[in-house]
Amino acid sequence: MVADASLSPEILAQYEAVVGLEVHCQLLTNSKIFAADANAFGADPNTHISVITLAHPGTLPRLNRKAIEYAVRMGLACESTITRHNIFARKNYFYPDLPKGYQLSQDKGPICVGGGIPVKAKDPATGQPYDTTIQLHHIHLEEDAGKSIHDADPTATCLDYNRAGTPLIEMVTEPCIRTADEAGQFLTEVRRLVRYLDICDGNMEEGSLRCDVNVSIRPRGATHLGTKVEVKNLNSIRNVMRAVDAEFRRQVEVTEAGGYIGQETRTFDAATGRSYAMREKETMNDYRYFPDPDLTPVVIQDAWLADIQANMPMLPAEWYHKFTTQYNLPDYDAALLTDAKELAEYYEAVCQHTSNYKAASNWIMGPVKGQLNEKTLRDRQFPVSAVQLAALITLIDNGTVSQTAAQQVFGLMQEQPGIPPAELAQQHGLVQNRNTDALKTLVEEVLAAWPDKVDQYRKGKKNLLGMFVGEVMKKSKGSADPKLVNELVVKTLQTT
């Protein structure tokens, strides 16, 4: 049964969505979590595999130390409690893309427990923003499965085991999310955090960040939890939000029709905006967890934990605080500049060479960001170096070039990187004319050409000042300093 678009707002308002997310983040280690195979996206099928990944008899796994450190980083960023004694278990299920017939994961003792991520969301009824914290139940480490490819052969499913054994952290929230916007904002913050921490690239289109949604409903005001339905195959933040809304409406419709909500796994079709049943949801007992006999416990000692803490990078909240206090930026600027770690670091670098912090922010939010796509941002391929941008801002501040001319200089700086902006401005005739005598001559010529307008100005029509300044700028072919021209026009009108 699919959601009924005719459900009235009054009926929907009688129910409340209860949502929990399971977010899988592939870790940016060089090798897999239990084998030396390369951990890289985009290789030819079944080229990053070994006898360990394929679970050949007699092979033994060995844990990747870096995967532990990356999981701890995320836990510290979320203010979770770090589990010091970690055991890996076998999660048993049979599926073609799981070469071992089981998945190595954590069961009873996840590496990070509790914590939360603050988000800003909007009330769906009023549109008003509010702050909330999405609480985490835990974060655990596990290995990824391979990939089933259904469209490469008309008669068979193809299997690519390159992804098998890739290290993952799975972040499991409490069932504390109430709206699609809260779910979307949480996932946005997770993606931003993993990128700041350099533990995951966050690319949902490549599957390195994936999200499953657990949705149930209950009468508004009730405290019990309903039967949850898990929705899989969500490959974008927008689709996560759409799936929450669609599944909420579907469950309300089933309930209103007197139907039964069963515990099941569903898939979401982005084209139709509907979910479809896949299979009944397994229970914990179905997986027959037991400690893996080939892996010894991992103990995180004080010195190791302290070393990880000491090497934590600045997180978005810390950058935000610095930008709003030390650099006195408005909240809007600070929020945009901290959206990506690369932007925050670039802004900080520019501010080491100029004290005009707001101008630096304006340039980065405008012309610089306009030249960046996702790849160039992630690769830190900024069109102009931080030193060069600061030098351009200085040229504006000291009146060497106008704001308009600076835009042209910025374009030239991208075409001819390495040449100082002052030199480019000089070469292309973009240096502002601040020769008072020459500009005064132009002012007198303009005023002499418009005697009637001068008379109107002196009779009180002061808005004509802008016209006079504009005519002088035309005569100078845009090279005159507008501020100086304005002063000379006013002075000339007062003295003649």
UniProtKB/TrEMBL annotation:
GO biological-process terms attached to the record: translation
Cross-referenced InterPro entries: Asn/Gln-tRNA_amidoTrfase_suB/E, Asn/Gln-tRNA_Trfase_suB/E_cat, Asn/Gln_amidotransferase, Asn/Gln_tRNA_amidoTrase-B-like, GatB, GatB_Yqey_C_2, Gln-tRNA_amidoTrfase_suB_CS, Gln_synth/guanido_kin_cat_dom
Enzymatic class: ligase
Gene (name only): gatB
Domain Asn/Gln amidotransferase positions: 345-493
Zinc listed as a keyword: no
Cited function: Allows the formation of correctly charged Asn-tRNA(Asn) or Gln-tRNA(Gln) through the transamidation of misacylated Asp-tRNA(Asn) or Glu-tRNA(Gln) in organisms which lack either or both of asparaginyl-tRNA or glutaminyl-tRNA synthetases. The reaction takes place in the presence of glutamine and ATP through an activated phospho-Asp-tRNA(Asn) or phospho-Glu-tRNA(Gln).
Gene3D superfamilies (UniProt xref): 1.10.10.410
Keywords assigned: ATP-binding, Ligase, Nucleotide-binding, Protein biosynthesis, Transferase
EC code(s) of this entry: 6.3.5.-
SMART domains: GatB_Yqey (SM00845)
SUBUNIT field: Heterotrimer of A, B and C subunits.
PANTHER family: GLUTAMYL-TRNA GLN AMIDOTRANSFERASE SUBUNIT B MITOCHONDRIAL AND PROKARYOTIC PET112-RELATED
Family statement drawn from the similarity comment of this UniProt entry: Belongs to the GatB/GatE family. GatB subfamily.
The protein, known as: Aspartyl/glutamyl-tRNA(Asn/Gln) amidotransferase subunit B
One Pfam family this sequence matches: GatB_Yqey
Species for this entry: Spirosoma sordidisoli
Catalyzed chemical reaction(s): L-aspartyl-tRNA(Asn) + L-glutamine + ATP + H2O = L-asparaginyl-tRNA(Asn) + L-glutamate + ADP + phosphate + 2 H(+); L-glutamyl-tRNA(Gln) + L-glutamine + ATP + H2O = L-glutaminyl-tRNA(Gln) + L-glutamate + ADP + phosphate + H(+)
Keyword presence, Transmembrane helix: no
Single Gene Ontology MF annotation: asparaginyl-tRNA synthase (glutamine-hydrolyzing) activity
